[in-house]
Amino acid sequence: MAAQAQTTATWDTSGNGMLSGTYYFRQVFYVLEDEYGDLGEAVSIYGNITFNGNGTYSLTQGQWLVYDSGSGAPETANLTGTYSISASGYGFVSNPYTGDSIYGLVSQQGIFVGSSTENSSEYNDLFVAAPLASPVPTAASFSGTYVFSNLDLVGADEGQTPGMLSMMFTLTANGACGLGSTTVTGYAGTSPTPYTQISTLPTCLFSNGAAVVTFPTNGELMQGQKYLYFSKDGNFVFGGSPYTGYNPWDMIVGVKVSSGTPSFSGLYYQAGIDDVDGDLDTYYGSLDSVAGGKILAHQRVDDLFFTPTTTDTTYLDSYTLTSGATYSTSFARYAVGAGGAIRIGSGIGPYLGLSVALQAPTVAPTISGTGVFLNPQGIVNAGSWAPFTAGIAPGELLTLFNGTNLAPAGTFAVAASPFQATLAQVQVSIGGLPAPIYYVTPTQIAAIVPYEVTPGTIVDIQVTNNGVLSNAVPVFVNETQPGVLTANENGLGYADAERPDYSIVSAANPTVPGETISVYLTGLGAVSPSITDGGLGTFSQVPTGTVTAEIGGMSATVTYAGLAPGYSGLYQLNVTIPTGLTAGDNYLEIDGTDASNVQSLIPISTTGSIAADPTAAAVPAPGNHPLGRPKVNPKTKRPPSLRSAAGK
Prior knowledge:
Oligomer: single chain
CATH class of one domain: Mainly Beta
Number of strands: 47
Structural class: mainly beta
Low-confidence stretches: 156-162, 616-648
CATH topology of one domain: Immunoglobulin-like
Mean pLDDT: 88
Strand content: 35-45%
Radius of gyration: 25 Å
Distance between the termini: 22 Å
């Protein structure tokens, strides 16, 4: 394909109306002082913010309150800013304190959560804003049982290493500001041992729609006043200490819970703060809670101890949500609110942290009739099916699904390699560059990201069907975005992998320690020597960046990483199974230069023998490759695995 220049993304602002009216907000900043994690400054901002629905917001005198560990005094200001929200609710708000962009998402309830992950000032932050209800909440609104997560930065005013507290507690409000007693359990620093604080709370107060709850001044975990802001429906609560409070740089999020087992499924938008051994990071992203108690999640993480500081991670989690609203993993405790619309999290030592996940809005096609609509929530890595907030990488195979009129009616066309930029009158452009197409249907397309896209930028993805152009969907460009193909063709379960005899790795045919298997994936980024977009890979074309692997948490030697010879859009990783693993299913982690993936499984046997290689070839020849042709399930609309991208 002829080389062309990448175009600059024009951010879709059709969702700006999702932020409209007066909101309560709270934002916390943590600025590191040195490479040891010592905190140089902590800032909290809270009050009212007014969005005009058209891309600008205002903060007025008396509404913008700052306390930082340097000045020791609150500040106020009149400020204006801008924001851009796309049709999916994904977008950014200009940071009132620094001018950087706060990237995040607007939930079904109109709540915005995000973080300045792309900031240039080397800080971590978390921002939450919820529409102010009308009429404003009163004591009568504060009724029922609520579970809260609180992250507190103790010792910030001394500039010490963050002595972070990660806490969870329950309040039962009687609708008249009576709160009774509560038990706070929390973790401090690197200790895995929980601490407990039992407190009898005085009657709360309400002012301008916010509750003021006071904890005893001698509390070991929580002290003094906490301001709580309520969502319109009263099911979500957030806030923290005022500037006159004890360590006023905390963040609290909470949910109203009910008896029985709440539903928890579908797409959610998330944001949070994590701290492990003084290594602080903040993030935003999305997660998809799917059948069988599985969560496939993405986070775009800002971690100042890494280079680059902003990275993507996609991972698989599991949960068992029975009667009651809470569940736990090895790393965190969670509570799911009534109706399942909100999940909050609190870290378990030494993995401290706070998170909030909110149900995503339903994105319905905004173009009717013969219009071409590209679903902004339906752009995923064709291997891992990473949620749509994950960045894309040069050479990555994408699936664009749940669209409308993406191809002529009745079309199901699969390309032969090398892939071309037009298939059945359909084209896909990414950053203005033509993308090679694997297959097309009226609702789903698979295409390869052009190698010419520039990492570190934001580009638009668009589809053209017979000359009719779709809406534009903005996405981040990464250097890498590993996505392992799986036998289930949905990013879950066993990785598409072969033993040395070309037999597929499975529960009935597990690999063994010391054996080198071939794993098939996408998203390892640019290769050298370069390749023409859509062309057939060769054994000599390897990623320009480093690729590493772990299996079962143990480092695994990568003997080859590069394009799969004879295929378009397919990468191959030859990895040696480390010794010392536990028999059974083990998670496979693939780390690129700026993205990681840990969600697929490798079954291990500790008693079997290494399979013999019948050809003694380092890499399986395309003709011997057992992968079949692609299939599209019109009911599930899940992206198919890249089974023989050559179309053979």
